[in-house]
């Protein structure tokens, strides 16, 4: 069974490639990012699956653990992928050389500007959006060409405006390119600063920006805070990692897990039609978590 070593900063294309490998092999895929998950998965590499078919085990950005467990990778009877999202190699030279001998190496560089625009055009059409050149450039600038964020935005528009005409759908794109920044809102939530959150949230909403932008940014924040809590936050500039680690001190692991679970439930309810909007419930949920009573 073929193993893979995938590296490069294009997270979206890498994940798409990995899913394509799983599909071509006719096997399921398991992604492992958290330290304790990877430890357990590495221990299972030498064991046969109980269900006949082997899962494709994907180990993402945990170089210290993989360097120490190199022998388990080399002697594995199950297929695996080592996926590092940094542009620079993080693994030791010994690990890199060993991986080269037993895996297929695939580089995932960032797309060029034109390739990114072509991708946005094709993806938008899947969501019944016919974007102009100006709208595509606006989306690129607002998201810094982050393909995952762009797809989330287009998917959000599709689910919110399903059944509306094209003009109504395109009007929702205005929120992506708004000049107001979402970061003060996110920072206030991360640090549980109630008054700052109320002020920045009001400014954010009065600009006409809908709650889904906050939802996706909040989802990413919760994930990063949890990774910081377990010392598994990698692939970001050091000053960003330090900032998130500091913010994570305001939260327990259980709080973050429960928050992430609630966000998933809200998104599921909207997509299945059980909840028409998340605006009120999202605000109330955030307030419940960031409110710190005065002593």
From TrEMBL:
Coiled-coil portions: none
GO molecular function: DNA binding; DNA-directed DNA polymerase activity
UniProt xrefs under Pfam families: DNA_pol3_delta_C
Gene Ontology annotations for the cellular component aspect, listed alphabetically: DNA polymerase III complex
Keyword Nucleotidyltransferase: yes
Alphabetized UniProt keyword annotations: DNA replication, DNA-directed DNA polymerase, Nucleotidyltransferase, Transferase
Keyword Nucleotidyltransferase attributed: yes
Family from the record: Belongs to the DNA polymerase HolA subunit family.
Name recorded for this polypeptide: DNA-directed DNA polymerase
Organism: candidate division WWE3 bacterium CG_4_10_14_0_2_um_filter_41_14
């Amino acid at each position: 069974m073929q193993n893979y070593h995938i590296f490069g900063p294009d997270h979206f294309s890498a994940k798409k490639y990995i899913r394509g490998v799983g599909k071509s092999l006719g096997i399921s895929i398991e992604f492992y990012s958290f330290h304790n998950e990877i430890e357990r998965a590495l221990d299972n590499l030498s064991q046969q699956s109980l269900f006949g078919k082997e899962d494709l085990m994907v180990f993402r950005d945990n170089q210290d653990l993989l360097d120490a467990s190199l022998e388990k990778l080399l002697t594995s009877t199950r297929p695996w992928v080592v996926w590092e999202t940094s542009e620079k190699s993080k693994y030791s030279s010994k690990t890199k050389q060993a991986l080269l001998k037993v895996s297929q190496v695939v580089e995932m560089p960032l797309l060029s500007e034109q390739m990114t625009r072509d991708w946005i055009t094709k993806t938008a059409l899947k969501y019944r959006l016919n974007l102009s050149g100006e709208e595509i450039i606006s989306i690129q600038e607002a998201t810094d060409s982050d393909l995952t964020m762009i797809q989330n935005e287009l998917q959000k528009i599709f689910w919110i405006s399903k059944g509306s005409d094209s003009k109504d759908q395109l009007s929702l794109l205005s929120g992506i390119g708004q000049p107001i920044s979402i970061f003060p809102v996110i920072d206030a939530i991360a640090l549980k600063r109630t008054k700052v959150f109320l002020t920045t949230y009001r400014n954010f909403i009065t600009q006409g920006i809908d709650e889904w932008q906050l939802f996706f940014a909040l989802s990413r924040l919760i994930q990063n805070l949890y990774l910081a809590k377990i010392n598994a936050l990698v692939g970001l500039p050091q000053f960003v990692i330090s900032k998130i680690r500091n913010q994570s001190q305001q939260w327990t692991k259980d709080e973050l897990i429960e928050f992430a679970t609630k966000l998933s439930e809200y998104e599921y309810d909207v997509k299945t039609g059980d909840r028409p909007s998340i605006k009120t419930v999202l605000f109330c949920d955030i307030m419940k978590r960031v409110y710190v009573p005065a002593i």
